[in-house]
Amino acid sequence: MEAADLLPLLEQLDDNVDDLEEALKPILENPVSETSNKLPVLDKAKFHVLVTYALESLIFSYLRLHGVNAKEHPVFRELTRVKQYFGKIQALEAEQAEPEQRTMTLDKEAAGRFIKHGLAGNDKLDMQRKEQEAKHKARAQLKAALLAKNAAASETSSKNRTSGSDSESEPVNEDWDSEEAMRVASGLVTTPPETTQPENSQEGKKKKDKSKHETSKTARKRKKRSKEEQQERKKERRQKKMEARKAGKAK
């Protein structure tokens, strides 16, 4: 690879390092213990695991750059061990996300037996309970009788309708055929008016397409603005670095 090909890659690496420094600035300014103590238990575990994984992955890449077989180094075993902690944390998060399932259920029949046994011996309550049971039974019987009557009435009405429609269909069809023939002969048959439903649907589709097109345009404009802002920031960083390098060379 020639030097001309390496220059854009080095500039990209420089920009990536700057972005990483900005992202890690709040963590690097304070010790790890201070930042982790402010977090809850699960977030604290995530923080420690991510920090260790980042450090060990840097050591792993450093060894590979210097020609060392990093897979045989103890760092590789540590990386695999840290990955297992990632799996444990994900399992805990899944358990917390699931709603708590009820392990205890109430046996209604057993509860009713206990209540009846506790209320037994009181004549007044026994009489009230018997009256309520009799009322429930009478209501259930009335509902069943009404449902049976309604079903029978609906069946008879449907049968009468079908028989009446069969008997009336033949003369009506004959009359309609004769009237249609007379209209054709006299030239009174007219074509039905065209419906406007497809036109309305096409207009609605056009409006939806316009709205989608406008939203996509706005999203593209926002992306372009964000890209332009990032490029301007990178240019400013490069200028600052070039000025710092020139100042160092001048000294």
TrEMBL record:
One of its GO terms (biological process) is regulation of gene expression. Its main location: nucleus. Residues 167-179 have a biased composition (Acidic residues). One of its GO terms (cellular component) is exosome (RNase complex). The keyword Nucleus applies. It is found in: Nucleus. Residues 141-153 have a biased composition (Low complexity). Residues 121-251 are annotated as: Disordered. Residues 123-135, 202-217, 241-251 have a biased composition (Basic and acidic residues). Pfam families: Sas10_Utp3. Residues 154-166, 188-198 have a biased composition (Polar residues). GO terms for molecular function: DNA binding; RNA binding. Keywords: Nucleus, RNA-binding, rRNA processing. InterPro entries: Exosome-assoc_fac/DNA_repair, Sas10/Utp3/C1D. Required for exosome-dependent processing of pre-rRNA and small nucleolar RNA (snRNA) precursors. Involved in processing of 35S pre-rRNA at the A0, A1 and A2 sites. Belongs to the C1D family. This is Exosome complex protein. It comes from Aspergillus hiratsukae. The lineage of its organism: Eukaryota, Fungi, Dikarya, Ascomycota, Pezizomycotina.
